[in-house]
Amino acid sequence: MSLSDDSRYLKGGPVAQRIIAAVREDAAIAKAEGFPPKLISITVGDTAAVDVYVRNQRAKAQLAGIDFEERRFPATITSGELEAAIHGLNADPRVTGIIIQRPVPAHIPVRTLQAAVHPLKDVEGMHPASIGNIVYNQLDLAPCTAAASVELLRETGLDLKGLEVVIVGHSEIVGKPIAFLLMSEGATVTVCHHMTRSVAAHARRADALFVAVGKPRLIKADMVKPGAAVIDIGINSEIGPDGSSRIVGDVDTESVREVASWITPVPGGVGPITVAILLRNTMVALSRQRALYEATYGTADRLAAE
Ligand SMILES: Nc1nc(=O)c2c([nH]1)NC[C@@H]1CN(c3ccc(C(=O)N[C@@H](CCC(=O)O)C(=O)O)cc3)C=[N+]21
Fold first, then answer.
1. Taking a C-beta distance cutoff of 8 angstroms, is the pair 11, 269 a contact?
2. Per the database record, which ranges form the Tetrahydrofolate dehydrogenase/cyclohydrolase catalytic domain (predicted)?
């Protein structure tokens, strides 16, 4: 059996395609009604993982019928200049959503940038007000990678209620939001990070293990409970044996697949769903903006109103 046919592989492609097909229908209707969705990506400096992400955002946005524009800024830009650019996008009625690609250079406080994005245009759910909503179990616009990881876990059919979940990595954008999403689904959640005494001891107890730390092959077979679901969120660029660059996750997939019942490949796992959810979030943002517009102007048809 070839690796790609192995039923243990939880593939993201089919899930992403389903989401994108639904977004495409929504986007076509919104466009016909005078509300074309438009997504703006902000990149500061140069990062390999960001390039992969943005390339796929552009391709899938085009497939879904969402306008996509990338704004690139040099790493030397000031925080004030970036905030001004974001305020300009907030004020532009043609712009539906704004995503700030991470990481940003060290001299720029990323939280200030996230807070500058208007919450109605915050398609990543990273504004402090948006991310706070997931504490209140309001989950319809969650950070994309976290939501994508949970979506893949659902594909296993495992009952999330009472499930023993261990998350390795406690970032604002992945580990922490996954913990909140799964708590609201009834899972029992343990979060490990760089100060955790024995990551292995925790990881071995997990029915579902999420890994998002950015360390190639960190998770080995002896850290995984037999029959577990392993969700690999790492996106690391490596130089392969043939000298070309490739992406690998945080899990030693070759050995872990002998122990786990489900494992997500990299590439082809969480990544494609992340992109699809970003597009879906753009449509959620658009519908919130439309609701506000219609409450203000009393019509569903922006073109008719003008
Ligand atoms: N604010 C912010 N939010 C993010 O979610 C975020 C970010 N910044 N910065 C960079 C990382 C990285 N990331 C990826 C998402 C999808 C793929 C992806 O589509 N991967 C595909 C394609 C791989 C390929 O084309 O080679 C796959 O895994 O199969 C990759 C990388 C999101 N990130």
1. yes
2. 10-124
Q: What is the pLDDT of residues 79-111, one digit of tens each?
A: 999 999 999 999 999 999 999 999 999 999 999
Angle, nearest 10°, between helix axes 144-154 and 175-184? Answer: 50
Does the bond joining 143 to the residue before it have cis omega, within 30 degrees of 0?
A: no
Same domain? 96 vs 166: no
What global pTM score does this model have? 0.95
Query: What CATH number is attached to the domain comprising 98?
Result: 3.40.50.10860
Q: What pLDDT, in 10s, does the model give residues 135-159?
A: 998 899 999 999 999 999 999 999 9
Pocket probe for ligand 1: among 145, 174, 246, the residue whose CB has the most ligand atoms within 8 Å is: 145
- For residues 84 and 102, state if they share a domain: yes
Pairing of strands 97-100, 188-192: unpaired
CB-defined site of ligand 1, < 6 Å: 49-50, 52-53, 56, 99-102, 124, 144-145, 173, 235, 247, 266-268, 271-272, 274-275
* Ligand 1 centroid distance, CA of 31 (Å): 27
- Within a domain: 304: no
CA of 151 to the centre of ligand 1 (A): 16
Give the residue numbers spanning the domain of 190: 144-266
Residue 125 falls within a domain, yes or no? Answer: no
> Tokens standing for 48?
């390999």
Residue nearest to atom 32 of ligand 1 (CA): 53
Helix (H, G, I), strand (E, B) or coil at 13: helix
How is residue 159 written in tokens? Answer: 């009952």
Q: d(Cα 227, Cα 139) in Å, to the nearest integer?
A: 28
Residue environment code for 214-249, b if the CB has 16+ CB neighbours within 10 A, otherwise e: bebbbbeeebbbeebbbbbbbbbeeeeeeeeeebbb
How many domains does the chain divide into?
A: 2
Q: Is 27 in the same domain as 92?
A: yes
